[in-house]
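Worked example 3 (structure in, sequence out).
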């Protein structure tokens, strides 16, 4: 596995939706909770929490929680152009880059996670686990925005399932 890229990965999915809706699916706390998080809080530069219908901007920070996981992820928004590009810090020093491209009735969502440390712990707990996690959540984004079905496991007694 010497040629395996431990420092970054990219995943793509086509979602039959409007570009603005998929941008909001990332940038808006109420929307990101529909497919990815159990709780999302975004804060402006003065640490004031954004309104539930307000999109984040560059320089804002976030606090994210998931169903059936006892972690809270904190990070910052590095880029948010209001249309088709978002970047945020994630899993410590990593950078997640989300590019959205409208192709007819589909939005191509391209997610790249970069700057992953290459120590043994990070290889497993960041590179492999994040790749698996993002793959599932991108499929869930498609499911929610195309048909309304949320595939996430929200039952605490069912921890360790493929769907969270």
């Amino acid at each position: 596995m010497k040629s395996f890229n431990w420092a970054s990965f990219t995943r793509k999915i086509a979602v039959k939706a409007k570009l603005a809706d998929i941008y909001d699916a990332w940038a808006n706390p109420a929307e990101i909770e529909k497919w990815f998080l159990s709780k999302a809080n975004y804060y402006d530069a003065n640490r004031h929490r954004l309104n539930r219908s307000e999109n984040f901007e560059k320089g804002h920070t976030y606090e994210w929680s998931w169903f059936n996981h006892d972690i809270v992820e904190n990070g910052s928004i590095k880029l948010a152009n209001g249309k088709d590009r978002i970047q945020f810090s994630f899993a410590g020093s990593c950078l997640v880059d989300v590019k959205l491209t409208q192709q007819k009735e589909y939005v191509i969502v391209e997610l790249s996670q970069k700057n992953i440390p290459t120590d043994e712990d990070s290889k497993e707990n960041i590179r492999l686990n994040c790749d698996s996690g993002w793959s599932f959540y991108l499929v869930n984004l498609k499911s929610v925005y195309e048909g309304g079905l949320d595939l996430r496991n929200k039952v605490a007694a069912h921890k360790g399932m493929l769907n969270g």
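Notes: The radius of gyration is 15 Å. The chain has one domain: 9-153.
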